[in-house]
């Protein structure tokens, strides 16, 4: 039971400022559950942190200093890949919490419900991968991880349209494109359990991208902008990369990303 009078923003902020991975997972699930049960006041009375708390391990390295990882064939390569994915999911917990806590006041309760459900999914994804690492004889924190993942949040903290254009509609959509190949590789070397975890993640990520598309289109409609044009402009301004094929057309289509939201941003 949360404190009587606990607000949703305070609960979200506390989860973001929890460094220990297990504790962050528990805090995130609790926020999503308490919000769904109507036990958190819909008040946005504290600001979200600029940077969430991080555990002492993994060591965070700039993207250019990351050791190259293999293609997932050898046991070491598979551990490195799952570790990298676990770190992405760990960061995704905070990205979803931040969306709910930072923009929930201006967007209303349905928006908060959607992004807290995403945060709970990301906590589940992280837990599945962290548990898999232990079964494989490693653990989250055993290897260095990529430091650049929070940049997208920082660069888009001022504007929900920019946040949605980049985080769910580019970064999470990219996961739809690359995950099937990883599933095939795990299956090819007989690691069916890892393959199954990635399939579960892929199915959930389609829903996350769909939330992004729906809320982005709603913001654009209020501003009188064309979603495809606004998306191109925001991605060109805030995403340092290329949105390029091959695309997972069927997953993108079920996520509401029509062809206009795929190519053409350089
Ligand atoms: Fe995820
Ligand atoms: Fe996600």
Summarize the structure.
This protein has nine helices and two strands.
Structural commentary:
The chain is an all-alpha fold and 266 residues long. Helix content is 64%, strand content 2%. It has a two-stranded parallel ribbon. The longest helix is centred in the middle third of the chain and has 33 residues. The termini are far apart. The protein binds fe (ii) ion (2 copies). One fe (ii) ion binds next to helix 3, helix 4 and helix 7.
Largest sheet: 2 strands, parallel
Instruction: Assign the structural class, choosing from mainly alpha, mainly beta, alpha/beta, alpha+beta, or little secondary structure.
Output: mainly alpha
Strand tally is 2
The fraction of residues assigned to DSSP E strands is under 5%
Which blocks of ≥5 consecutive residues have pLDDT under 50?
none
- SSE series: HHEHHEHHHHH
Bound molecules: fe (ii) ion
- Total of helices: 9
Helix fraction by DSSP (H/I, runs of at least 4): 55-70%
Give the SSE map.
Blueprint: H1 8-16, H2 21-36, E1 60-61, H3 75-107, H4 109-135, E2 145-146, H5 151-155, H6 160-188, H7 192-223, H8 227-238, H9 249-254
Parallel strand pairs: 1-2
Helix pairs in contact: 1-2, 1-3, 2-4, 3-4, 3-6, 4-7, 6-7, 6-8
């Amino acid at each position: 039971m949360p404190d009587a009078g606990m607000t949703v923003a305070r609960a979200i902020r506390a989860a973001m400022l929890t460094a220990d991975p297990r504790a962050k997972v528990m805090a995130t699930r609790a926020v999503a559950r308490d919000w769904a049960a109507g036990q958190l006041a819909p008040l946005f009375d504290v600001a979200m942190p600029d940077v969430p708390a991080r555990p002492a391990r993994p060591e965070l390295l700039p993207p250019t200093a990351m050791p190259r990882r293999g293609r997932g064939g050898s046991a070491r390569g598979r551990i490195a890949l799952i570790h990298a994915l676990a770190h992405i999911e760990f960061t995704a917990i905070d990205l979803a919490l931040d969306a709910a806590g930072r923009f929930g006041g201006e967007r209303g309760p349905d928006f908060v419900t959607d992004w807290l459900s995403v945060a709970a999914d990301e906590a589940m994804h992280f837990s599945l991968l962290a548990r898999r690492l232990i079964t494989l004889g490693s653990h989250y924190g055993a290897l260095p991880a990529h430091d650049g993942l929070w940049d997208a949040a920082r660069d888009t903290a001022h504007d929900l349209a920019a946040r949605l254009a980049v985080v769910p509609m580019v970064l999470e959509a990219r996961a739809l494109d690359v995950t099937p190949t990883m599933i095939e590789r795990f299956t090819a070397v007989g690691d069916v359990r890892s393959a199954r975890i990635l399939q579960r993640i892929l199915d959930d990520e389609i829903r996350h991208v769909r939330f992004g598309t729906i809320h982005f289109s709603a913001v654009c409609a209020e501003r009188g902008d064309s979603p495809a044009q606004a998306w191109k402009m925001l991605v060109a301004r805030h995403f340092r990369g290329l949105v390029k094929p091959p695309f997972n057309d069927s997953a993108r289509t079920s996520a509401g990303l029509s062809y206009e939201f795929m190519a053409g941003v350089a």
